[in-house]
What does this fold into?
Amino acid sequence: MAAVSAVSALLAAAAAAERNRWQRLPSLLLPPRTRVWRQRTMKYATTTGRNITKVLIANRGEIACRVMRTARKLGVQSVAVYSEADRNSMHVDMAIHPGYGFLSENMEFAELCKEEGIIFIGPPSSAIRDMGIKSTSKSIMAAAGVPVVEGYHGEDQSDQCLKEHAGRIGYPVMIKAVRGGGGKGMRIVRSEQEFQEQLESARREAKKSFSDDAVLIEKFVDTPRHVEVQVFGDHHGNAVYLFERDCSVQRRHQKIIEEAPAPGIKPEIRKQLGEAAIRAAKAVNYVGAGTVEFIMDSKHNFYFMEMNTRLQVEHPVTEMITGTDLVEWQLRIAAGEKIPLSQEEIALQGHAFEARIYAEDPNHNFVPETGPLVHLSTPPADPCTRIETGVRQGDEVSVHYDPMIAKLVVWAADRQAALTKLRYSLRQCHIVGLHTNINFLLNLSGHPEFEAGNVHTDFIPQHHKELLPGRKAAAKESLCQAALGLILKEKAMTDAFTLQTHDQFSPFSSSSGRRLNISYTRNMTLKDGKNNVAIAVTYNHDGSYSMQIEDRTFQVLGDIYSEGDCTYLKCSVNGVASTVKLIILENTLYLFSKEGSIEIDIPVPKYLSSVGSEGTQGGPLAPMTGTIEKVFVKAGDKVKAGDSLMVMVAMKMEHTIKAPKDGTVKKVFYGEGAQASRHTPLVEFEEEEPDKRNSE
It folds into this structure.
């Protein structure tokens, strides 16, 4: 709370200075999820008779960029705060950068804005308070006739009390932080044996995220769907719903792909969902944009989970299917106007998907990654395609913030057409420099069960093998493309050497047999995953190449050209023409085409390779740069494979480091509160001594 108070004081002081400077005209705090609306002059009269002329944005990244673009179109000035980590970020260049945090749902901050005479574009602080505490919100919802899940929401937070209620409810149960959202402080407990460990983990994360470690216990609905309803309320007592979104497909309890409307929902269920959401909003006198989240079972029975008192990350899919601009609605309502449309006037058209593109490695439990975006390109935006991002090529994905790179949003007339467009657009997202989940999203959106709309929160674990099949061997045609790309890049360098030295007859100035009118063969080695692939390349006098891989020979020709800052390879392999984007970074070639992307490595001689990445004496390595939150072992402790060794916090997530094998701890390299760099050893195990009894 101290950090919140400090930021609040900072923003309040800035706002006070601005009021004096601008003849006491109000500053505005926009919530973190925004939309670019139609160009028009923004001068809505507020309930106090004042005009909106300036916006204070208390957020960062893609959301801040969108707010700033919107403000510019409207001729509204932007005021923001930013952290040192974001000094050189995209949104800082566009305008003043906002701070990042949970201010959009912070009751104290909303109340402080009110006291300072600042219009807070959001609900009353009382609604934030009531909906921000899950135990309170469930009591209010039950009284309002909204279905709720069985659970314990009481004040007794002792371990014994919580454990007893978990046993009474029956495993599996869900432990949830009473405050906040985003999957923070949330754990699934499937047996009594693991309850204590999961409880402590949930409390630590809740304390760090929300400054409150209180939790509640709920019955866990097996293979549920996560369905949420967009609602809006105004100062005149009106409330409407803008249909539902399905956000079921998640990893780490966080959404990865969302769609609207929810697949397979009948009109009568859709109406019941919307009406229940309206009851929830009116029960707390809600004003502005909000999302009521429900958990739904296989029979389409639904139960209230929580209400997010802000605009959601995934709100663009709702805008796409309703033709509305939800941020414009927020501004109008904050200025005292009524909701722009009645319930009957809100129409549902078509289908929309949003895919979140993250810097993370799906093949290693979706561990987030940090590093530079060496190359970043996305499909062009159009009326049916939106790219929401707060980074540019060359920017760094920082350890300090969420690893989301961009949101890809598409719309089409029906779900199948929207799904086809989603996959097409994902193949046009090209990122080099760190691992991303793009190929995983392609596998997910192409899975037969996903295509059929059979989604639920266990979708990824249930279809893990199909979604993460491991690395497939590259097609030999792709290996030919990679070899050709290397040869042509080499040729371009030698041609440049020729121009520089003016010695066109030097044998070092030619990388082609064409000049000497001869054919000759060279041997190349490329690395496909862990496998070295030998390629015999014959340079033909006509400028083409014959490439032999194992027992197959390919006729290859082509050229490279530049377009903007990108290099493209236009080639033909056995008469099949194609164009691919070619990027060479250190010892890796990246080929991007309409069919997807592949990576091919150039083997490095052993005497040039760096020290291996294995941990000291088989101990675990830090999966990323982060802070050691908790240490469970000390030198001399005996552990079993899978035992928890320590907890690391990085990129807003808690990671439990477990023992990779049975053994005895020799040394713990980091204490609690220490910062560990990626791939550094965390714990060292003692070497196993030979069994003397067997040696006698």
Q: What stands out?
A: Residues 150-219 form a domain with the Dna Ligase; domain 1 fold (CATH 3.30.1490.20). The radius of gyration is 29 Å. The first strand starts at residue 28 and ends at 30. The CA atoms of residues 417 and 588 lie 35 Å apart.
